Amino acid sequence: APMNLFMRMSLTTHSFLSSFHSHLCFVISSFQMQFMLLFSRQGKLRLQKWYVPLSDKEKKKITRELVQTVLARKPKMCSFLEWRDLKIVYKRYASLYFCCATEGQDNELITLEIIHRYVELLDKYFGSVCELDIIFNFEKAYFILDEFLLGGEAQETSKKNVLKAIEQADLLQEVRGLTILIGCARELFGGFTP
Amino acid sequence: MPAPIRLRELIRTIRTARTQAEEREMIQKECAAIRSSFREEDNTYRCRNVAKLLYMHMLGYPAHFGQLECLKLIASQKFTDKRIGYLGAMLLLDERQDVHLLMTNCIKNDLNHSTQYVQGLALCTLGCMGSSEMCRDLAGEVEKLLKTSNSYLRKKAALCAVHVIRKVPELMEMFLPATKNLLSEKNHGVLHTSVVLLTEMCERSPDMLAHFRKLVPQLVRILKNLIMSGYSPEHDVSGISDPFLQVRILRLLRILGKNDDDSSEAMNDILAQVATNTETSKNVGNAILYETVLTIMDIKSESGLRVLAINILGRFLLNNDKNIRYVALTSLLKTVQTDHNAVQRHRSTIVDCLKDLDVSIKRRAMELSFALVNGNNIRGMMKELLYFLDSCDPEFKADCASGVFLAAEKYAPSKRWHIDTIMRVLTTAGSYVRDDSVPNLIQLITNSVEMHAYTVQRLYKALLDDISQQPLVQVASWCIGEYGDLLVSGQCEEEEPIQVTEDEVLDVLEGLLVSNLSTPVTRGYSLTAIMKLSTRFSSVNRIKKVVSIYGSSIDVELQQRAVEYNALFKKYDHMRSALLERMPIMEKTASNGPTEIVQTNGETDPSVVETKHPPPVTQSTNQATDLLDLLGGNDMVPVIQTSVPTKPASAGGELLDLLGDLSLSGGPAPTPAPSVPTSQPPFLLDGLSSQPLFNDIAAAGIPPMTAYNKNGLKIDFTFERANPNPNIAVITINASNSTEADMTDFVFQAAVPKTFQLQLLSPSSNVVPALNQGTVTQVIRVLNPQKQQLRMRIKLTYTHRASSIQDLAEVNNFPPQSWQ
């Protein structure tokens, strides 16, 4: 399968961890999301979803460097950048950066739509979602993501169906005060950052 | 034992920490509590504890001691436990740890669970992080679920199957039956994931690809329905129905239509329809258009469709959204070779993108611009690209400069324009220019004979302004060394000649020697240039002084040069003028770039012949015209061979290098020619060490001859055929002296007609002893591919009885066997 036509044409090359590269190499598929990161403007990680196997050390290194790179981007720049052997698609929503890494010939514009759909889902679920929601209910953010994407691909293209599934699953949760707590979160911990 | 603190409360507490140390302390305390709770095998709070651990893990703290706990949670019957357990497994475990295999059984059970949401958790985990072993074990379960009528599970199973195939490609076959009616599903989720699965299979296996081609009509139908159907609130995004599915279908069509005429034709109409009807006001519409364009370009689409696609890209270029411009430039770069003319139409828009603020867009625009340069637009394009070079970020400058040089070399409308362009690059981006551009440029300048005066003048003026950019300084030094005489005599025709004295020029060159800005390589260039001027300027004494000063320089390179130049002044002054003569035209090989140039130590500084080993190199390259003047003929064109640059300071190899670097009419001269294209006629390379210089065995049947016999000097030629090339005649000259006085400083030079090539190896000595007590031998190799009659003009110089003798002769009496 054709790989990395973009990188081939790029005149600059970035060096990268050899182990990192070897793990990306086993995936021949031309389109695959490697990982998704959510982080704040201060560089604090709020969610990390990895679709390729990497050691903790490698994940940390990648995260650190990529976060730095994205945060250094100016507002006028486009949402795409080449980084190491990957294509990075990122978008900022309020105080959170949503950052996806894909390999190969992915359609960056549709990846932007994927990101947007995820934000919409969070927004519908939490009701005007803000960073604090993600911080205090990170496990919910993961659950929602895992109902939307599987292995880096969209499993459900209907917003309604994703939210319905989450709702049903939530109902299955044995009452431990968790469902009540979600509603209380705002009262207990107040303070929204827009 | 009090209940462990709740997750949200922990989060709140940790966030109150004011310092990293405080946070660490809190974390450590909580971890300790969690650890003891784990030790107590507390089922009730395990879930809460693992959740807290996951939070702390996200902050960057180690959480490996929770791995087994995740497995226990997964094995639990409670859904809450499983949910957190699987999440923990995905975050904390990966296939490197053996412990992950313990999940396999749990996942297997959960895949068959009565609750679909539990099955969903299992499928999700397997599809996200399943190792090859797990995939092998559980592929059967996944395949089963792929056939279920429950669309919630079916869609997940499809993506899980994709993951299984990626990890264990051999298992692909087993999923084939289940794909039979995937596309007849109405559920979009299943459709989407099915298309992903089919795409994966087609990409991995040509057989699968061929098998699934028959789905093209069905895919086309589905796509058509999506476009034509009315508003569907469930899947609508800004007025477009399920863009995710549309894009994936277009992608699959691309793979199926590639290299297949029938499939391509079957999808032609729908592609045209999508291309023309998709709403472009929002990103989502453009995403679909983009995918459509990619598909059109990749399949065997008819030309009308291709033009449509390029025009879409052209419109993208004008879009306000920089993301759209970015993808347009990327795609155009891919198609510029195949659809060159179509892309040319958008040239001005592309050039405008050079001014974009975004680095990625600028880079693509630059690459695309260079791809679009041709003979017709070179002037206009170069103006834009040079402007870009002026103002762009340093990260672009090297590539841009190289691109400019390449384009200029290919399409320069005139020599003057070419030189001007080079000057512009050197003066604006001179420090970013690649090292190997210097020799390229020097060669170019040398060969633009009529521009020498103009070039040296411009370079000189540039030096007056700025000596910090090394490539510029090196090229300028070299030129001043070569053409300094033109500079001071004010011979420039192209522009107002400047008035400059010899002393001023030497001031500038000496300034380079002492400046801190000059690199050692640059200093080498300038010292050599100064030396060359000793034969062009009259202020020889000044030059002598400079040269002798550097004889004790701590820079070894400089010192060596200075010592040898000193020697030239002292012992070999008679050779100096010949040695330092103007460089001849260098033969150009097909244009190519930097890779053709031989780099030695990364240094390509010119060095006059290293005269370390006696007998010294006695001859130099003469300018072509000089030899013609001397020999008087106009059909004799000494074909100057290009020479491979020698290492400036390499001990033993030196002599062999000298032998290899021969030009016509003279001897070896790896002279001030910093690299030159290396593709030599093969026989020249034969001349290196492996070939014996002197072959005793006379060539079968070719009789020797006397070429010259006058004033006591006799020169005999003996012949043999070179192996393996029979077109090469190897002539050994024997010079003998029957007079009573030695002939010293003996130099033999030769010229042959245009159709021949000649190589002169080093002589055995430069003294022909008196009274035939010995001979000077020298080997000439003549390449005669057209088998023409061999003729030669020879020039002899020597000192005899304190007077300098010079003579010319024509040798016409070659035996036919020597050239037939």
UniProtKB/TrEMBL annotation, chain A:
The keyword Cell membrane does not apply. GO terms for cellular component: AP-1 adaptor complex; clathrin-coated pit. The keyword Membrane applies. GO terms for biological process: intracellular protein transport. SUPFAM superfamilies: SNARE-like. It is a peripheral membrane protein. It holds the Pfam family Clat_adaptor_s. It comes from the Eukaryota. One of its GO terms (molecular function) is clathrin adaptor activity. Residues 32-172 form the AP complex mu/sigma subunit domain. Subunit of clathrin-associated adaptor protein complex 1 that plays a role in protein sorting in the late-Golgi/trans-Golgi network (TGN) and/or endosomes. The AP complexes mediate both the recruitment of clathrin to membranes and the recognition of sorting signals within the cytosolic tails of transmembrane cargo molecules. Adaptor protein complex 1 (AP-1) is a heterotetramer composed of two large adaptins (gamma-type subunit AP1G1 and beta-type subunit AP1B1), a medium adaptin (mu-type subunit AP1M1 or AP1M2) and a small adaptin (sigma-type subunit AP1S1 or AP1S2 or AP1S3). Binds to MUC1. Belongs to the adaptor complexes small subunit family. This is AP-1 complex subunit sigma-2.
Automatic annotation (TrEMBL), chain B:
GO terms for biological process: intracellular protein transport; vesicle-mediated transport. Residues 594-621 are annotated as: Disordered. It is a peripheral membrane protein. Residues 594-604 have a biased composition (Polar residues). InterPro entries: Adaptor_Complx_Large_Subunit, AP1_complex_gsu, ARM-like, ARM-type_fold, Clathrin/coatomer_adapt-like_N, Clathrin_a/b/g-adaptin_app_Ig, Clathrin_app_Ig-like_sf, GAE_dom. Keywords: Cytoplasmic vesicle, Golgi apparatus, Membrane, Protein transport, Transport. It is found in: Cytoplasmic vesicle membrane; Endomembrane system; Golgi apparatus. Residues 700-815 form the GAE domain. Its main location: membrane. One of its GO terms (cellular component) is AP-1 adaptor complex. Belongs to the adaptor complexes large subunit family. This is AP-1 complex subunit gamma. It comes from Nothobranchius furzeri (Turquoise killifish).
